[in-house]
Amino acid sequence: MAYAIRDYRDGDASALADLTLAAIRGVGAYGYSQQQLEAWAARHPGPERFRARNQQGHRIFVAADAEDHAVAYTLLEPDGHLDMLYCHPDHTRRGLADQLLAHSEAFARSEGMKTLYTEASELAWPAFERAGYQVMHRRDFEIPSGDEAVPIHNYAMEKRLG
Hints:
Blueprint: E1 4-7, H1 13-26, H2 34-42, H3 47-55, E2 59-64, E3 70-76, E4 82-87, H4 96-110, E5 115-120, H5 125-130, E6 134-145, E7 148-160
Antiparallel strand pairs: 1-2, 2-3, 3-4, 5-7, 6-7
Helix pairs in contact: 1-2, 1-3
């Protein structure tokens, strides 16, 4: 299947929200418990958040299939924080994470950014490592969920561009 990397369009917001939840629940199950996944999914922003982040100057790069449907994306903040990298479970293991990270890095370099950094999930950190990011440390924290706090973790990673 052929994919193209393109800039976010307002019409992508609902698809990105849906694919993020599908990725958390589908792909996330390989590295996190059901309780962790549900707490994580509950924190996920809906379509309006994508529109707002785009308007705030955050760059969203979308991998689209041959019919121009969004199947994966990254969200890069102006300070070099790569806040999101998600791929729909039906489109994993096709190099989309690598392509999106390379595209985000090329954009960051063109903007003069010196460092990219992220908090990568248990499943995403290998893609970031392939792209040259280094693990700084594991982050153990809790997500409020109902009447309890659910322990979860990710990895603080960064890549120097300069």
